[in-house]
Write a structure and sequence with these properties.
The protein is an alpha/beta fold and 444 residues long. It has 15 helices and 22 strands.
Amino acid sequence: MRVIIVGAGEVGFQIARFLSAEGVDVVVVDRDRQKIRRISEELDVAVVEGEGGSPSVLKEAGADEADILLAVTDIDETNMISCLVAKVMFQLPRSVARIRNLEYIGNEELLRSLSINPAISPEVEAAKAIIRLLEVPFAADVEDFEDGRVKVIGFRVPPDSDLLGRTLRELNLSDPKVIIGAIRRGDRIIIPSGRDIIKKDDTIFLAIRAEDIEAVSRRIGGLFEPVKRIMLSGGGRIGYYVAKTMESRNVSVKVIEKSAERCKFLLNSLKKSIILHGDGSDQSLLEEENIKDMDVFVAISNNEEVNIMSSLLAKRLGVKKVITIVNRTDYLPLADSLGIDAVLSPRLITASTILRYVRAGGIISLTTISEGKAEIMEAEARRGSVLIGKTLREVELPKRTLIGAIIRGKDVIIPSGDDRISVNDKLIIFTLKESVKQVEKLLR
């Protein structure tokens, strides 16, 4: 497979890094010489310096032999033109574009005419990730599969948990049944066996039926209280999307925004939210607005340093849960180590969302965790796959790969070794990055 990535910024870099590690033929195009140099020095991929919408540049990148084009620059129009040229000049089978303008995102006729399938908005994807975290208050990470019927929840193990010091085999996670599919320990990610031990500060990732979330939270020591009051520091596109969604669910929302012009937009566009003109890192403002009574504080301004500082301040002032947006990936470990409950990167979320359209072997959707060290994927067991008819005990999965759930029609099965895989079953699979290609082969 040959993949052309137009855009060598953080999103393009992360996608190229994931794919090149799997031996995919990747070519990155960008007009910024410094970005191209970084890609060339750090990754084993081909690079072309030039404009992504130029026919001659795309030809040099091998567009006439490519399978897919991923247009992920910061400029919507550049991404759209790149997709159009790829369609008209080179008949590329598929183009995926990063689009920020919601007017473009909502215009299906325009996107279809440009052969963009699909268009992905970083702000919308980040907002959806925040909303998932608001729906599961005890979680540090939440991913939906099969339209939310199965959730994979990342839960940071508290220091007083009765899970600590016990092997997975010793844990009683059968009522309701769940599977621990991955453990994040510092900068390591572990796909566990029954012999692995839960340790202090681990984040465990569990595959759970949606209807079992409350019962599972009680079993593992997570607090499950529906979110009723949230405060958003930042009223940009992400903040607006989150506020509008939570308004429809009768959640009390306060939005703090520094720009007076943006405040006017929010006042005219939101029906129930309280809009405050100010700085989310202003302690007196937070105290005046009763931050201690909030269920969740979400820092989503465009400045990650301010987001981290305001989150730490909100935590100190007594808010129950803090969610922080951090764009720079090198800040992610820092923010996580400071005790912030959930740290999200819109760029990594976007890269993860786009990756699903490059995968082979019946993969429906996927998400990366721990900065791409592991993947959680939803895949279909198609006729002809070596998995069909075998029990999980009989299946020879790649090393450190685990099946966390089987979706069969309307049934969601949290499996044991005796469960058998049937044609058209959908599988939730946890695997390390180095095993992804082997998993794809099994599914073919």
